[in-house]
Amino acid sequence: MHHYRVSFFLFLFLFMVCPDLSAQNSAVSIAKVKELTKESCDYLDQTNYEKSLKKSGIALKYAFDLKNDTLISRNYNIIGINFHDLGEIEKAIFFYRKALFYAERSNIVSLKMMITSNLGNLHFFEKKMYKEGIAYYKESLKFGQQEKYLKEVAITNLNIVWSYFKVENYKAGLPYLNYINAHQNDLKGKSDDIALNFLNGMYWSSVNDTAKANMYFSKAVSASKSTEDKQDLSFAHLEYSKFLNKIGKYKQAYDNLLMYNTITGELYNETKLKKASIAGLNLELDEYKRQIEKIENEKTSQSQSLKKSRIIVILFILISFIFLFLIITLIKNIRFKKKHNLELLEAKEIAEEASLLKTQFISTISHELRTPLYGVVGITNMLLEEHKELSESEHLSALKFSARYLLSLVNDILQINKIEENKVVLESLAFNMCDEITMIKNSLSFLAQKNNNNFNIEIDEEIPEYLIGDKLRLAQILINLVSNALKFTKDGQVDIIIKIDKIEGSFYHLDFLIKDNGVGIAAVDQNKIFEKFVQVGRKDEDYQGTGLGLSIVKRLLGLFGSSIKLESDLGKGTAFSFKIPFEYNTLKTQKIIEDIEVDLTSNEIYKILIVEDNLINQLVTKKIIEKNNYVCKVVDDGFAALKILEKEHFDLILMDINMPLMNGFETTKRIRLEGVKTPIVALTAFDKDEITDEAVSAGMNDIIVKPFEPVKLFKILNYLITEAKKAG
User: Fold this and answer.
1) For 73, which of 18, 103, 338, 389 could close a Cys bridge (C-beta 3.0–4.6 Å)?
2) 3-state secondary structure at position 307
3) Using DSSP, how many helices (H) and how many strands (E) does the chain show?
4) Using CA atoms, how far apart are residues 211 and 201, in angstroms rounded to an integer?
5) Listing from the earlier edge strand, what are the strands of the sheet with 631-635?
6) Does 104 lie in the same domain as 65?
7) In total, how many domains does the chain have?
8) Is 353 exposed, middle or buried (0-12, 13-18, 19+ CB in 10 A)?
9) Which domain holds residue 626?
10) What does the pLDDT read at residue 366?
11) Average pLDDT of the chain?
């Protein structure tokens, strides 16, 4: 079935209602091309293909002269429709695609809709590529979402209905038919009434409603025989004939079939086709001629470029000689410097090796210190819990304090080393500023009481409740500065003041001030205090820390893109200030809060396996575990762990890393090879960042660094065990 009348009518509409042609030459020239285009379209409606092709060929030439993409596209489309009607499918596709190319350049929506719809007609009805055809129709609909394209949308819907009904998919075509019935005023034309009526007839015939089907078919074929669009009328007779044959009215069916053949014969007169083919061939020759002219123009352009290239080559040779002279001079300098550079390279390699050795040394020392510290802190806590009468013992308090001091020293050294090696990355966490400052105040209250200091906090009320940023690094900065202020102030006051400096978009720039009325810092010492291990005003009997605190503060602020300011007078006090931007975004904050892991607690008694070679650490870890009503077993090495796992099931395994015979990583790998899916947590004195990659590749589920807070341990245990039970 052919139904190009939809395309013809749409083209006429576009020509008459779209005034946005680009006036690139004189108004008379464009008017002439418009007139030729209209004449070509009129001849096409009359199925006079010979004259239509000749007129559109002349119009196309003028349109190219004017460089008017819209007129070029429209005439290419008319030529495509001519070939489409004549059954020259590949030629029609060629010209349709050219039309669509120039329509895209001119960005005329109605024109793009019409050409895409024509491609749909061709693929569906001629090439029998039904899916591709309907896809083109739906693509055409996407272009016309605006209200001013209601007519084009209605026509495209008509084509889609026709396509679905062609393959007898009446259910799929019904929504589009309903749309046209509701918007038939948008069609505005008798030719469209013919198509709409016999499509309605086809639908009611498909659902066996004979009365309605006959009514619509009768309307379709009753149109005047003088109608310009005889194709729709021919199809109306054809479909009516099928319907009449279906209901047993064979005489009437035969009469309508004769009408279809008569009209079709008139449309495809042999003489017209012969003349049109000759005109079409001439048009193709004109297209090839245009391509040859384009190639010749390109050759001329290339010839001119070649002349320019010769000049460039000569200049290049001259410049090359100059560069050669400079290179010879440079070689002499390079040879002179080469020896010196080799010495620098050797020095660089020595420095890098020293840096690596330093990192390895710090890692080893921290591990060797943390292991006994875990035992000291653990046993001290056990003594205080089991012997309440010793809670007032100065000796035990001193022991616990000393262990925590040593642990703080190890952490400070590791922190400064990480910053220097660019291993610290800021995190985005949601936090409440008031809560964070209150926790800092509470953790340092013992120091304030020791030196009889007042602790004052002022926080701007305009600061949002929740901000986004690295609260852990902020806490490190404030704890270092506030603890210094409390140490060097006696019977005085320490203030933490936080105000809004400025607001830029979603970022609040906060101004932090930490000041005291303590001993102060002499002007001569103020440039030294941010260096590593430097302390000023220290007395032998005082505890003044490691000398790393302010160095860490300065480097952490550098990560925030900030710097610290110092104002101090000897004997009057000290003030440190800095600015940090934090993001305020309620949606992000809600997302971060939702993503925080919930502490899953359980009343169940779980069975834990501890793999640890150090006897003291075995004792401490076992006591902590059993104190919380967990069942616990301890083995000394990896081989013993593999053996016991063959006989017993455990809910979780705590695995030491640094063990003799077989380390924790290798033990974990072998456990996983045996098919054991029990969660395994590394319980180690190594820094977490140093072993994370190897722990994950070995099959470990998490890492806890000794010494640890028991609350953190049981949070991880409960979470991993619960998740494992869900997965099981």
Assistant:
1) 103
2) helix
3) 25, 12
4) 10
5) 631-635, 607-611, 652-655, 680-684, 702-705
6) yes
7) 4
8) exposed
9) 607-727
10) 56
11) 77
Q: Would the CA dihedral through 326, 332, 333, 339 be positive or negative? A: positive
Report the range of poorest mean pLDDT among 172-181, 303-312, 362-371, 572-581. 362-371
The tokens for 27 are 């108004």
Say yes or no: 578 and 510 in one domain: yes
- Same domain for 75 and 119, yes or no, is yes
Q: Is pLDDT above 60 for 355? A: no
Q: Assign residue 699 a region (left: φ > 0; alpha: ψ between -120 and 50; beta: otherwise).
A: left
Residue 375 in any domain: the answer is no
Say what the pLDDT of residue 696 is. Answer: 92
Q: Partners of 458 in the beta sheet?
A: 497
Measured at the alpha carbon of residue 623, what is the angle toward residues 619 and 629, in degrees to the nearest 5? Answer: 150
Measured CA to CA, the distance from residue 177 to residue 173 in angstroms comes to: 6
Could you say which of 123, 145, 175 is where a domain stops?
Answer: 175
Residue type, 306: L
**Residue in 246, 254, 179, 166 with CA at minimum distance from that of residue 209:** 246
Q: Which of 493, 523, 515 is nearest to 574 (CA)?
A: 515
SS (H, E, C) 585-609: CHHHHHHHHHHCCCCCCCCCCCEEE
**Residue labelled with tokens 């007042």:** 454
- Measured CA to CA in angstroms, residue 561 lies from 160, 342, 420, 557, 578 at distances of 61, 36, 16, 6, 11
512-529 per-position pLDDT tens digit: 999 999 998 888 777 777
Q: Give 525-554 pLDDT, tens digit per residue.
A: 777 777 755 455 544 444 455 556 677 788
The CA distances from residue 490 to 493, 514, 591, in Å, are 8, 16, 45
Q: 454-459 and 565-569 as β-strands: parallel, antiparallel, unpaired?
A: unpaired
Note the pTM of the prediction, 2 decimals: 0.39
Residue 503 lies in a domain: yes
Name the token pair of 385.
Answer: 């819990």
CATH number, domain with residue 108 = 1.25.40.10
Secondary structure E strands in 478-542: 493-504, 507-516
550 plus 511 within the same structural domain: yes
Same domain, 548 and 624: no
pLDDT of residue 85: 81
Asked whether residue 182 is domain-assigned, the answer is no
Q: Yes or no: say if 665 and 657 are a contact pair by the CB < 8 Å rule.
A: yes
CA 283/CA 79 separation, integer angstroms: 9
Residues 93 and 5 in one domain: yes
